[in-house]
Amino acid sequence: MKVVSLSLDHKILESDSEVSQRANQYGDLVAKYLVAIPGASKHIKLSDKTTIVAAGGGNKFVSFFRLRNYLRKILNKEKFDLITIQDPYFLAVLGLCLAKKFHLKSEIQIHGFEKLSGIRKFLAKKNLRRADLIRVVSERLKQRLIADFKVAENKIYIAPVGIDVVKIENSRPNLKFKEKYQNKFIFLTVSRLVEVKNIQLQIKALAKLNNKNIQLLIAGEGSEKDNLQKLVAEYNLQSQVDFIGWLDDLGSVYKIADCFLLTSNSEGYGMVIAEAVLADLPVIMTDVGVAGELVRDDVNGCIVAVNDLETLQQKMGPLIKDKDLLAKFKVNSDKFKHKILNKSDLINKVVDHWKSVV
User: Fold this and answer.
1) Model confidence over 212-261: pLDDT tens digits?
2) Residue 4: which of 42, 34, 31, 30 has the closest Cα?
3) Are 58 and 28 in contact (CB under 8 A)?
4) Among residues 43, 88, 97, 48, which one has the least CA distance to residue 69?
5) Fewest CB atoms within 10 Å of the CB: 141, 149, 215, 306?
6) Exposed, middle or buried: residue 283 (CB in 10 Å: 0-12, 13-18, 19+)?
C-alpha cells in the first residue's frame, strides 16, 4: 500500500521533530509514505519508504497551485493507493480532486475545527461527505460529524492522539518543584498560551478563591503570555502563579500536582488530559474534547461549562479541603486509562483502517 499524506504542519520538515518521527513510523508499515506540504521547495528522505516534500512557495494560492502540479506529476508516474488529508478545508479540496482523478481512496483527519464559518464551513461539509474514510480523535467529534455535517457513521473511526504512556507513567516527581511548593495545593495547567485556551479563567478563579495556600503552575508558551502575566499582576497573584514554560519531562510536574485544570473554549481531543489521567491526577475541565470520555463528572474529576467562572471556582474550592474526594478521583483514574492509546498502537490502528478501504 502506497500512501500520500497532505499536511500543513511545517514541523515535519525538521527531521528530529516528533511529527517527522511519526511519519517514519507510518512509513515502516506501508510500502511507501509521501508527505507533501505547501511551502518553499524542500525534499527530505527520512527513510527508504518515507519522504517529506515541501512544494510551492509564494502566496497561499500560488503555493497550492504548485503543490497540485507537483502531486499530479508524481501520481502520473507512480500508482498510489490512498491520500490522507490533515485539513478539511482548502487542502481537502485539492486532495479529493487528486483522489478522483487518479482513482485513489481518500481520508480526511479531523482533530478539531478552527474558524468554522462561511466558506470554510461550506467546504468542510462538502469535503467530509465526499471522503471514503474519516478519522476523528474523540467520540464528541464523531457525533458532531453525524449530527451537524450529516456524514455517514460507517465512514468514521475514532483514533485518539497517541501518548507516550510509559514515559508519563514512569516519570518521577520533580523534586525541585515539590520542595519549592511544599504545603501548597498545586493546580497545574499545560497548554499553549493562546486565547482559545482561556487560561485567564483560571487566574480569575484563583483570585476569587482568595486562598494563599494555592499555587497555580502554568506550563507552556504562547502569544498570550504577556497578557496573562499582566492579569496576574492586576490581581496581585505573583507569588501564587508560576509560569514554568515548556519542560522536557512534563510527567515529572504532573506527579507533584494535586489537580489538573483545562479551561479551553474548544478542544478536538486534549492530549494533556490523557497525560493527567495517566499520572492519576484529578481533573477539572470545561465541557470540550474528551470530557465525558476520559473525565467524568464526580468520578475522576469535574466538568464545567465553557467560560463559567463561578462554577470553576465552586469546583476548585472543595478539592482543596476534601482529601477523601481528591483520593477518590485519583483512584478512579484507572477506570479510564484503557482508553488511552500508546503511540505505536495508534499508528497501527490508523494503518489498519487505511487497509480496510484500499
Assistant:
1) 999 999 999 999 999 999 999 999 999 999 999 988 888 999 999 999 99
2) 34
3) no
4) 97
5) 306
6) buried
